[in-house]
């Protein structure tokens, strides 16, 4: 790949120092003085790049690799060519993530400073009643409403709209074009471009002459500390209670979170998931892409929902569910295997002319 000027390489770090910082051990200590400055996939890693490998089946990628070192565990270390030093880690994926953060900290948050300046742009509108701590960046065309409170270190990008009374904590990043209404936002929260937070949820009652009558939505959205919200994701405010996203939860792009939903701490929700109103999701839950979650159900702590599943009823804590309707993953996989086996049997009978 050509030189990437969007994320230029680090000034450089000794391999031994990197190993210490990411909690890995360097197998060949004589390689400790090698300088590394970036991350790259194994197949095209160069002499100053660090890479990682999780499974032996990708061993062919080493044939073109000139990596400064590879992060892996003991099960993979034996297939690494002798010219590539090994950084042994119990959790290679985590160690690689730490290395990436060291070399490219600017890539951990959405790109800001579009106007090339810091502080509050004269082309931003900030209501005189807003309360802003020191050290805040607000870019051109952002709108900060009446009574807003924003903590130090927070960056508001171009085109952001922060509605009246919203409170945003410290060291947050609110990306271009996002809107935040009727919300309380904690510290170190990242909101990616185009996200919509705090608009009214979908609630209607049958009208006396047909049609529907809108039900007022007077709750809030609460984003706790270290939450990340993906691009073009929408989180509706509560009808009368709050919609709550728990500490450390990461939500991907294009996710819909309905009113009164409560999501626990340290959950991971992949793109295109839809969560209907008043659902309760526990701590540490992982939901695969394009899953649909019914309203007014509970998904227990540490459970996992497979991609493209349709969850119609409660999911017990610690379970893995998949399919439509979602059921325990072992049942879903067994049923899928049985259907495939029957289809193959019918195909063989057709091929051989057996009509029985």
Q: Mind telling me the C-alpha Rg? A: 25 Å
Q: So how many helices?
A: 4
Task: Give the C-level CATH assignment of one domain.
Answer: Alpha Beta
Strand tally: 39
Keywords: Acyltransferase, Lipid A biosynthesis, Lipid biosynthesis, Lipid metabolism, Repeat, Transferase
Function: Catalyzes the N-acylation of UDP-3-O-acylglucosamine using 3-hydroxyacyl-ACP as the acyl donor. Is involved in the biosynthesis of lipid A, a phosphorylated glycolipid that anchors the lipopolysaccharide to the outer membrane of the cell.
Protein name: UDP-3-O-acylglucosamine N-acyltransferase
InterPro entries: Hexapep (IPR001451), Hexapep_transf_CS (IPR018357), LpxD (IPR007691), Trimer_LpxA-like_sf (IPR011004), UDP_GlcNAc_AcTrfase_non-rep (IPR020573)
Primary descriptors:
Udp-n-acetylmuramoylalanyl-d-glutamate--2,6- Diaminopimelate Ligase, Chain: A, domain 1; 11-stranded mixed β-sheet; 356 residues; alpha/beta; 10-stranded parallel β-sheet
Folded structure, characterized:
- There is one protein chain.
- This protein is of the alpha/beta class and 356 residues long.
- It has a domain at 13-108: MurE/MurF, N-terminal domain (Udp-n-acetylmuramoylalanyl-d-glutamate--2,6- Diaminopimelate Ligase, Chain: A, domain 1), CATH 3.40.1390.
- The strands form 6 sheets. It has an 11-stranded mixed beta sheet with strand order 10-13-16-19-24-27-30-33-36-38-39, covered by helices on one side. A 10-stranded parallel beta sheet has the order 8-11-14-17-20-25-28-31-34-37, with no helix packed on it. Strands 9-12-15-18-23-26-29-32-35 form a 9-stranded parallel beta sheet, with no helix packed on it.
- Strand 6 (69-72), helix 2 (74-77) and strand 7 (86-88) form a beta-alpha-beta unit.
- Residues 33-99 form the UDP-3-O-[3-hydroxymyristoyl] glucosamine N-acyltransferase non-repeat region domain.
């Amino acid at each position: 790949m050509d030189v990437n000027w969007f994320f230029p390489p680090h000034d450089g770090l000794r391999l031994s120092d990197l190993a210490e910082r990411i909690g890995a051990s360097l197998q060949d200590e004589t390689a400790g003085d090698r300088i590394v400055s970036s991350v790259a996939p194994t197949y095209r890693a160069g002499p100053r790049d660090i890479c990682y490998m999780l499974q032996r089946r990708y061993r062919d990628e080493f044939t073109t690799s000139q990596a400064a070192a590879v992060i892996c565990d003991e099960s993979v270390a034996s297939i690494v060519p002798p010219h590539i030093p090994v950084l042994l880690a119990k959790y290679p994926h985590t160690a690689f993530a730490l290395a990436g953060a060291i070399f490219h900290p600017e890539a951990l948050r959405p790109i800001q400073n579009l106007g090339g300046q810091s502080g509050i742009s004269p082309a931003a509108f900030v209501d005189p009643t807003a309360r802003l701590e020191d050290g805040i960046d607000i870019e051109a065309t952002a709108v900060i409403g009446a009574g807003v409170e924003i903590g130090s270190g927070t960056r508001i990008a171009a085109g952001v709209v922060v509605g009246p009374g919203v409170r945003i904590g410290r060291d947050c990043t609110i990306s271009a074009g996002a809107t935040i209404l009727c919300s309380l936002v904690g510290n170190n929260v990242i909101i990616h471009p185009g996200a919509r937070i705090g608009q009214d949820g979908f609630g209607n009652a049958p009208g006396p002459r047909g049609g529907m009558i809108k039900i007022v939505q007077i709750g809030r959205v609460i984003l706790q500390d270290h939450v990340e919200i993906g691009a073009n994701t929408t989180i509706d405010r509560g009808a009368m209670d709050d919609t709550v996203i728990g500490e450390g939860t990461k939500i991907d792009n294009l996710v819909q979170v309905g009113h009164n939903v409560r999501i626990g701490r340290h959950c991971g929700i992949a793109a295109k998931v839809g969560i209907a109103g008043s659902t309760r999701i526990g701590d540490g839950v992982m939901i695969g892409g394009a899953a649909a979650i019914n309203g007014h159900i509970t998904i227990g702590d540490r459970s996992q929902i497979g991609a493209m599943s349709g969850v119609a009823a409660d999911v017990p804590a610690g379970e893995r569910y998949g399919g439509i309707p979602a059921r325990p993953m072992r049942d879903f996989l067994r049923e899928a295997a049985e259907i495939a086996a029957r289809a193959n049997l019918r195909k063989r009978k057709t091929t051989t002319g057996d009509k029985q």
